[in-house]
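Q: Please design a sequence for this.
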């Protein structure tokens, strides 16, 4: 084969390569999610830790058509926001149904109301926990563990966000000794417990009732 023939073949290959159009991977260009909107007055919503679009779609197929579900960002989590609940018992029943059906964590969130003294459901008002030590319990998609911890400690159990996960808050204190004591007490009972810097913890509610 002559040099001229080789050059012609190489030229054809280069032209073919140059004409190839590279299509970007759609998964690499996912738009950032909008922050979840708070509930309307006198409304309850569910926040389900779906984490990705596939789980969101699976969850959406199991919901009633009367319920509005959209994927959004809550703190550092990707969640499915389910709206349309005016009745607390109905919202709580749906949260339990979703947990049993999918194994995903689901929480009832209420709209803030003025003059309210206390509620067992998180208001949409996340804020840093503050100085001190936080004793956190990994509830492993079993939020009903809050009831067991409450019976052991005889104190309210909260719900917090730490890192990119949610935990039950067993104690918030400025005493490292008290925090370590509670850590040992719960660990001895088989709970997966840890003590962390409470300044890195976001409080969702100080009292839950699952």
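A: Design:
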């Amino acid at each position: 084969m002559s040099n001229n023939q080789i050059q012609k073949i190489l030229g054809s290959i280069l032209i073919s390569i140059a004409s190839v159009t590279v299509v970007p991977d759609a998964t690499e260009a996912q738009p950032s999610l909008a922050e979840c909107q708070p509930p309307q007055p006198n409304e309850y919503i569910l926040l389900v830790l779906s984490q990705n679009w596939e789980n969101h779609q699976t969850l959406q197929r199991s919901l009633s058509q009367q319920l509005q579900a959209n994927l959004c960002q809550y703190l550092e989590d990707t969640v499915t926001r389910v709206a349309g609940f005016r009745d607390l018992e109905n919202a709580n029943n749906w949260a339990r149904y979703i947990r049993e059906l999918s194994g995903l964590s689901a929480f009832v969130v209420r709209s803030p109301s003025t003059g309210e003294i206390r509620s067992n459901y998180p208001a949409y008002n996340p804020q840093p926990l503050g100085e001190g030590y936080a004793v956190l319990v990994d509830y492993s998609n079993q939020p009903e563990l809050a009831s067991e911890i409450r019976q052991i400690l005889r104190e309210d159990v909260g719900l917090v966000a730490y890192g990119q996960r949610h935990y039950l808050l067993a104690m918030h204190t400025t005493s490292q000794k008290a925090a370590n004591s509670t850590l040992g007490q719960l660990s001895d009972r088989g709970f997966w417990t840890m003590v962390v810097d409470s300044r890195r913890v976001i409080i969702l509610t100080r009292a839950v009732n699952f």
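Q: Thanks. Anything notable?
A: The two ends are 81 Å apart (CA to CA). Residues 31 and 81 are 18 Å apart (CA to CA).
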